[in-house]
Amino acid sequence: MSIYQKNKLHIENIYKSFGEILVVDNVSLDLRENEFVSILGPSGSGKSTIFNMIAGLLKPDKGNVFIEDEDFTGKSGRVSYMYQKDLLLPWKKIIDNVSLPLVVKGTNKKKAREIVQKYFKIFGLEGFEHKYPFQLSGGMRQRAALMRTYMFSEDIILLDEPFGGLDAITKRKMQYWLLDVFQSLNASVFFITHDIDEAIFLSDRIYILSDRPAKVRAEIEVDLPKPRNNQIVTTSRFNEIKKDIMNIL
């Protein structure tokens, strides 16, 4: 039996076409409470389209999106969604960038700043509250973007290749950092990637998608111990899982 008992998110038999092109073909996915799940597939396979339907930015042609058993099909504003680019506003200080979701929801600026202040240490940004985005490294900008995403919705977070634009060394550091941060937050995460090692290292489960139109080819349980360290990528079990995924792809 899984240690994750409660379903936070359930996507049931969704389809999506653009014109005559079928992009998503009968996809069903689950995300449980405090679980980290990767959606792994080739570029252009429809992963981001699935995220857009989960976020309510697109409505599926068929199928439904349920969040905590409530039908949210075509409804936006319930989940956090972070794209690959950080999309920080260059004219705003970091504290005001990360406060933005609260301000949009009606919290005044002063109160929003007070609320987010305690999270700067958790997200490794203490001391950078009053810097501007151009004054931060690429990795730190992504931390700020993740913090802003978390402030929008603390329990369900969609991450669309957030480390795809980083160099290999920074990317690996960010992966360790992300696992460490989410161990201290009660969040459930859907993570898009086409990097097999990244999916295995970060995830509790992995859904493997086909080329377009996207179908679920397999669901993989990642039975590696946590917390994970840099030695785990050289273990026999890690490489067995990697081999299984490569055979499916």
Overview of this protein structure:
- The chain has a 6-stranded mixed sheet, sandwiched between helices.
- The protein has 8 helices and 10 strands.
- It has a domain at 1-78 and 188-249: Rossmann fold (3-Layer(aba) Sandwich), CATH 3.40.50.300.
- By secondary structure, it is an alpha/beta fold.
- The relative contact order is 0.18.
- The chain has helices spanning 47-54, 94-104, 109-117, 119-122, 138-152, 168-183, 196-202, 236-248, and strands at residues 7-18, 21-32, 36-40, 62-67, 70-71, 80-82, 156-160, 188-193, 205-209, 216-221.
> Mind telling me the C-alpha Rg?
18 Å
Q: Give the helix level as a range of percent.
A: 25-40%
Q: How would you sum up the major sheet?
A: 6 strands, mixed
Mean pLDDT: 89
Strand content: 15-25%
Low-confidence stretches: none
From the helix content, strand content and strand pairing, which structural class follows? Answer: alpha/beta
CATH classification class of the domain at 1-78 and 188-249: Alpha Beta
Can you count the helices? 8
* Overall CATH architecture of the domain at 1-78 and 188-249: 3-Layer(aba) Sandwich
For the termini, the CA-CA separation is 27 Å
What's the total count of β strands? 10
Outline the fold blueprint.
Elements: E1 7-18, E2 21-32, E3 36-40, H1 47-54, E4 62-67, E5 70-71, E6 80-82, H2 94-104, H3 109-117, H4 119-122, H5 138-152, E7 156-160, H6 168-183, E8 188-193, H7 196-202, E9 205-209, E10 216-221, H8 236-248
Parallel strand pairs: 3-8, 3-9, 6-7, 7-8
Antiparallel strand pairs: 1-2, 1-4, 4-5, 9-10
